[in-house]
Amino acid sequence: MGLFDDRQRAFEARFAYEEDKAFRVSALRSRMMAAWAADLMGKTGPEAQDYVNSIVHD
Fold first, then answer.
1. How far is residue 33's CA from residue 50's CA, in Å, rounded to a whole number?
2. At the top level of its lineage, which domain of life is listed (predicted)?
3. String of b and e for 24-50 (b: at least 16 CB within 10 Å)?
4. What is the sign of the dihedral through the CA atoms of 10, 11, 14 and 16?
5. Domain layout of the chain by residue ranges
6. pLDDT for the residue 58
7. What is the rounded (10 degree) CA torsion for 23, 53, 49, 21?
8. Nearest to 47 by CA among 30, 57, 35
């Protein structure tokens, strides 16, 4: 059953990679959108960074 075990491990590794990639893309998208929104609201510097962090972490 070595072939099936190898295949299952490969499938699980690919699934984990794809989920991790999707999570990272989503987090980046959220961070960029929050930065854009902070800019529209006129926030700059630490105030903008605090806003971005509050959006991304909540």
1. 14
2. Bacteria
3. eeeeeeeeeebbeebeeeebeeeebee
4. negative
5. 23-58
6. 60
7. -10
8. 35
User: Phi and psi at residue 42, in whole multiples of 5°?
Assistant: 85, 15
Q: DSSP 3-state helix, strand, coil percentages of the chain (rounded to 5)?
A: 90, 0, 10
12-57 pLDDT, tens digit each: 999 999 999 999 999 999 999 999 999 999 999 999 999 999 998 8
Residue 43's region, left for phi above 0, alpha for psi from -120 to 50, else beta, is: beta
